[in-house]
Amino acid sequence: MLSRRIIPCLDVRDGKVVKGVRFRDHVVMGEIVDLALRYRDEGADELVFYDITASPEGRSVDRGWVERVARVIDIPFCVAGGIRSVEEARQVLYAGADKISVNSPALERPELVDELAAAFGVQCVVVGIDSLRDDDGEWRVRQYTGDPSKTRSLPRRTLDWMIEAQQRGAGEIVLNCMDSDGVRKGYDLTQLTAARAVCRVPLIASGGAGEMPHFLAAFTQAQVDGALAASVFHSGAIAVPDLKRYLQQQGVVIRLQEAADE
Amino acid sequence: MSVVLVDAGGTNIGSVRYALQRLGVDAALTSDAAQIRAADKVILPGVGAAGPGMARLRELGLVDVIRGLTQPVLGVCLGMQLLCAHSEEGDTQCLGVVPAQVRRFAEAPGLCVPHMGWNRLSPRAAHPLLRDLDEGDWAYFVHSYAVPLGSYTLVGSEYGDGFSAVIASGNFHGMQFHPERSAGVGATLLKNFLAL
């Protein structure tokens, strides 16, 4: 049985891990490699690093820290942040990332998803989607969310983009529900359930985790493959081993770290 | 001991190399036939599609070189699939050193393709490659094509149907998951390979 994945997300800014609330007011949480190793030792199933300032600043991710992480980490990790071309993706993958995630650049030029899938296979290509419910009740995508002054609303509906991204070659979708991000009231189960219905590749929930039952609900109600969270892990409010034991007790298929591995 | 990583353009070469470094082995990255033939151990990593993977090995003149190797060889992920006879991916003739066919996972309700994430291993044979591997240990998989269970299967796993997680035929071995990304279990299996 495939396990559900617990995925700490590390937002990277100027080489440090930071976290904001609703994508604002970032505070430094620690060094990239230290936090990566800590989560690996605690039994995280995967890590995601978002270079949150790369896309608004129009630059690609800095591959120096990608290589440092790859040298010490023996669990998979995904890198996101301003990857705009096959060549930039190749740099990040060759530096040791297992997957690359594209968000704003894929909205600028959707063919990027096709090109990445053709070059590296769909299994390397994650499409990240930032989504917000508009006043008319529709979920629509947002672009350049790393910098609130540059964030744009697009007319594209979230679920339409999710379907198109899969047709173009997305091997995994991370859906970040911005209404709930950083406020710890729980994942947006309504939106995730709607997304699950149209998502035939692995779906990762993002935004809103505050308590252990929030993870359980995402897995059992929205049937997501993985749950991503940042602040609850960085702050120590939820420890990954406690969370995984809790989920296993609740009947979720989860990987518990083998004793010999500690 | 000399270990070489066959540089056929797979994007996980760096990760496999770092995993070997964590075990104290500095593997050379090469596409040189003489260096590959002379190595004690040969690892064929690989991420991507079967057709381009075989095309690269042909361009590098390595198809017959790999087929003729007699030392322990390990294919990882796509590298394992390239050791097989044929892949449905792009209808590709592969190296044919393991008598297996590579097939696409059938999509089914609740079964996403690619098969991506941690899944359980189930050893089916006694083999030095499997030392200290326990029933139910977890490994990290990312793939859309798989090798069905067969006489060459050392370790099975299950996604819808059973499939091969580790295969072997003579001196050729393959791991469908990524040992370089499978935490302690992956390190154990790589260590076992180096000790063959």
TrEMBL record, chain A:
What residues form the catalytic site here?
D11, D130
Gene Ontology MF, one: lyase activity
Q: Which UniProt keywords apply?
A: Amino-acid biosynthesis, Cytoplasm, Histidine biosynthesis, Lyase
Query: What is the E.C. number?
Result: 4.3.2.10
Q: Which PANTHER family match?
A: IMIDAZOLE GLYCEROL PHOSPHATE SYNTHASE HISHF (PTHR21235:SF2), IMIDAZOLE GLYCEROL PHOSPHATE SYNTHASE SUBUNIT HISF/H IGP SYNTHASE SUBUNIT HISF/H (PTHR21235)
Q: What does the record give as the function of this protein?
A: IGPS catalyzes the conversion of PRFAR and glutamine to IGP, AICAR and glutamate. The HisF subunit catalyzes the cyclization activity that produces IGP and AICAR from PRFAR using the ammonia provided by the HisH subunit.
Q: Which NCBIfam families match?
A: hisF (TIGR00735)
Q: What is the name of this protein?
A: Imidazole glycerol phosphate synthase subunit HisF
Q: Which organism is it from?
A: Dyella acidiphila
UniProtKB/TrEMBL annotation, chain B:
All copies of domain Glutamine amidotransferase, residue ranges: 4-194
Active-site residues, as the UniProt record annotates them:
C77 (nucleophile), H178, E180
Span-the-membrane segments of this chain are: none
Query: Where in the cell?
Result: Cytoplasm
The family database entries (Gene3D superfamilies) matched by this protein are listed as: 3.40.50.880
Q: Subunit comment for this entry?
A: Heterodimer of HisH and HisF.
Q: What is this protein called?
A: Imidazole glycerol phosphate synthase subunit HisH
Organism name: Dyella acidiphila
Provide the gene name from the record.
hisH
